[in-house]
Design brief:
Layout (H helix, E strand, L loop, with lengths): L1 E5 L7 H17 L4 E6 L11 E4 L3 H9 L2 E7 L8 H12 L4 E7 L7 H13 L2 E4 L2 H8 L10 E3 L25 E6 L19 E7 L4 H7 L5 E3 L11 E4 L2 H9 L4 E5 L2 H10 L3 E3 L8 H10 L1 H18 L1
Parallel strand pairs: 1-2, 1-4, 2-3, 4-5, 5-6, 6-7, 8-9, 8-11, 9-10, 11-12, 12-13
Length: 323
Amino acid sequence: MNIVVIGYYGYQNVGDDTLLRQTIARIRLSFPHATIQVLVGPHRDPQLGGVEWVPRVGWSALVAVMEADWVVVGGGGIFQDRTSIRSLVAYVGMLAVATGRIELWGQGMSPLRWGVSRWLVRWCLGRASLIECRDEGSMATVRGLVTERGMGRVRLGADLAWGVPVPTGVATKPRLSVGERWRVGVSLRPLPEGEWCGHVGEWGDGYEWLGWVFQPRDEGVLRGSGVTDMAMIEFPLSDPMPQVVVAMRYHAGVMAALNGIPFLALGYDEKVSSLARELGQPLIEVVGGKVAGVKGGLDELVGRYDWYRGRLQEGVGAIKRRG
C-alpha cells in the first residue's frame, strides 16, 4: 500500500505540523506497514520518522500522487480562496492527477468568494471517497457544493489536532494566589488583508503576557503588539501554563481548549469565530486589522472564569465524541 499525504506541511507552522503527525498516526493504525509519502515544503519535521519526504512543488510530487494507491488530505483548510486562489489551484492540480482513492480528513471549508473557486472545489469533492468536515460551518459549505446523493460521502468529524493526548497532570490553575497576576497566553498572526493594529498595553493592567508563536512570522506581530516574552509552541502544551488565552490562530484555541484553558477568540477568519461559538467562548471580530473591546472581553473571561471553563469542557467533550 502506497499512501501520499497532502497538506500545508513544511512551513514551520505548529498547527499544520501537528495535523501531519496526527494524520500519520491515524494511517498507521489501519496500515502499519504502508509506505507513506508526504508532500512537503522546505522544512521537514525532525520528530516524524518512517515517512518519505517529497518536495511539494515539481514533477516528483505529481508522480507520487499519480502512483499512489490512496491520497489523504490531512486536515487544515486548504480549500479556500481568502489568502490566495493560486494555492487552491495548486492543490486541485495535485488531486486532478490522482488515480487511487482520495480521502479528505478533518477539513475546514470556508465560504468561497469566487465562482471559479466553487467550481474547482466542487470538482475535487466529487472525486473524493470520503469528505470529513471539522465543524458544522464546513458541513454547510460542503452541502452547497455537492449533490444530495454525494452527501452520503460526507461526515461531521473534528480537526485532527483534537486527537493529541494531553499528558496526565497538565492542567490550568483555576485560581490565583493573593497578589499573583493573571498569566495570559497571546496568539497573534499576520493578517492577509493588512497590518495588525492591536497592542497589549490597551488590554488592561494586572496581566502577565506570554506570546505563543505558531510560526516564525508571528514573532514580529507579537513584538509590535508589546509582547516581549514569547516561545515557539508545541503540541501538547507544557509549562509555563497560562490561566487564559487570547487566541487569533485557530489552533491556539484548540490547544487552550485541550488543556482546559478558557480563551478569548479574535475572529480574523470564520474558522476562529466558529470555534469560539462551538466552545461557548467569548469572541471579538477583527475588522481591517483593528479590534475593539479586548479589554472588556478579557475582563469578562477572567471575571466569569469558572462559567467559561464549564462551557469549554462541555464543548470539548462533544467534539471529541464525534471525532
